[in-house]
Amino acid sequence: MRILFVLIALILPAMGPWKDACEGRDACVLGDRSYHVRAPDDWDGATPMPVLLHFHGWGRQGDLIVNHDRISGHTRNRGVLLLAPNGRGKTWDFWGPGSDDSAFAAAVIADAAKRYPIDPARIYVSGYSYGGAMAWRFACESPLPIAALLAISGTIPQDSGCATHPADVRHVHGLGDPVLRYPFGPGGDETHAVKLWRETMGCDAAEPRPAYSIRDFLTISRSVWDCAEGRVTLDTHPGGHFIPHGWIGWQLDQLAGRAPRYP
Asked: Please, are residues 173 and 153 in contact by the beta-carbon 8 Å criterion?
């Protein structure tokens, strides 16, 4: 399945021209479900694009995501195609393995590749709150190769078994989150929040990095693990349940090898 998808995605950019693509508040219909798309502001209509598939939070839909300053505000000026699937009942089934929403998410990416030229080597998965947990679930069982997971304030149980994993994991969570509480480990271990990925990817000891601020009112602490099968990054802050200003754009810049900037 992975090899087939990569071959299809590599061929698709040579097709085109790319016309009749749904975008913005007009949902792309996929069977009995749908998703939203936001192309970069300066896209030339032909160049293959990295993809950020973002799962919305509980009670939301993808039309919010493609107009959200802290999400599309950072994909639109970085040449990234934003895909925002709509969850059934405005939520996601991330509670156990074999989620129908994982199959749907894979179908969204495949369908978008028919509408837009995408770069199959740069498929990123993100989500916030319940959407963050769904992003973890999808990254854990995706039939497609995922270059990076950018998860915000939502996880799945750390003893979950994963059939696959992203090449790069980045998770941010507020230590004071009152909605989806930070998953401390025994003895208040803060690194427990990414235990699943550290064990799945064969990570060495953590490397604390200097704290940083994207906006001066929030300081983010960072730990990084170099692993046998990729890298894991954990960002924490003293705040609550929110998407930190600029965090998604900061990660996209680093993944692209650029100096991070805001916005």
From this structure: yes
- Give, for all 263 residues of the chain, the pLDDT tens digit: 444 444 444 444 444 445 456 887 789 999 999 999 999 999 999 999 999 999 999 999 999 999 999 999 999 999 999 999 999 999 999 999 999 999 999 999 999 999 999 999 999 999 999 999 999 999 999 999 999 999 999 999 999 999 999 999 999 999 999 999 999 999 999 999 999 999 999 999 999 899 999 999 999 999 999 999 999 999 999 999 999 999 999 999 999 999 999 99
96 in Cβ contact with 134 (< 8 Å): no
Q: Under CATH, domain 2-255 is a member of which superfamily?
A: Alpha/Beta hydrolase fold, catalytic domain (3.40.50.1820)
Q: Are strands 49-55 and 230-237 parallel, antiparallel or unpaired?
A: unpaired
Its pTM stands at 0.92
